[in-house]
Write the structure tokens for this entry.
Amino acid sequence: MKRKAQPKPEQVVPEEILEQAKRSVSEDRIGKRPPRCAVCGAETAMAGPEPLCWVCRRLKISAWREIEQQAPVQE
Ligand SMILES: [Zn+2]
């Protein structure tokens, strides 16, 4: 399929598709807000049953390690 010279070479993307893209982006922003940290309420990229920001995640991991270290080894 051969194309003839386009009258508007700068307008490659049709208006309709542009509008659709804009709409889907704004819907994305409204529908998929970043989850909030369950501890401090900061925005986080982590989604899941327990959303935590990186600060609280680190605190939690270090707390786990402390618990593991303090736990008596029973053998
Ligand atoms: Zn947090």
Remarks:
- The chain has a mean pLDDT of 80.
- Residues 15-31 form the longest helix (17 residues).
- The CA atoms of residues 28 and 65 lie 38 Å apart.
